[in-house]
Design goal:
single chain, about 120 residues, alpha+beta, Arc Repressor Mutant, subunit A, 2 domains, 3-stranded antiparallel sheet, 4 helices, about 35% helix, binds iron/sulfur cluster
């Protein structure tokens, strides 16, 4: 699902993604964005409504404020780097229940078998 964002909202998300795990105090974000606290609060509320951040109440610098914690993560293309599909001449015709199927593709199978896949399981 693609959502419509203003330029300021996009900049806010880019900054927040740098603090993916801990989030950042909203006042720090307003400072980095160069906006007033009123404008900043409006952005934070919009991002919260869109499900992009959560606003967590926190006591910092002698007063109650909010920490903005991203609920989204940056994607990495590293896991699919080198996959044969983007440069495949059959890409346009390939798919489940199509003339060419990834289920029986030798090139894809060889690439998958050559990957060092971390399943997250140990033992
Ligand atoms: S699955 Fe095989 S045939 Fe299909 S696009 Fe990828 S490399 Fe090409």
């Amino acid at each position: 699902m693609q959502m419509k964002m203003t330029k300021l909202e996009e900049r806010a998300i880019k900054l927040l993604l740098k603090y993916e795990n801990s989030g950042m105090l909203q006042s720090e974000l307003w400072h980095k964005l160069g906006v007033t606290s009123r404008e900043g609060s409006r952005i934070a509320i919009k991002l919260e409504k869109k499900g992009v951040v959560k606003r967590v109440k926190e006591f910092a610098n002698d007063r109650w404020t909010r920490r903005l914690v991203p609920l989204i993560k940056q994607l990495s293309i590293t896991p699919i780097k080198g996959a044969p599909c983007p440069s495949c001449t059959y890409d346009h015709a390939c798919g489940l229940e199509r003339a060419v199927s990834p289920c029986i593709c030798i090139r894809l199978e060889e690439w998958v078998l050559g990957q060092d896949i971390d399943t997250g399981m140990s033992g």
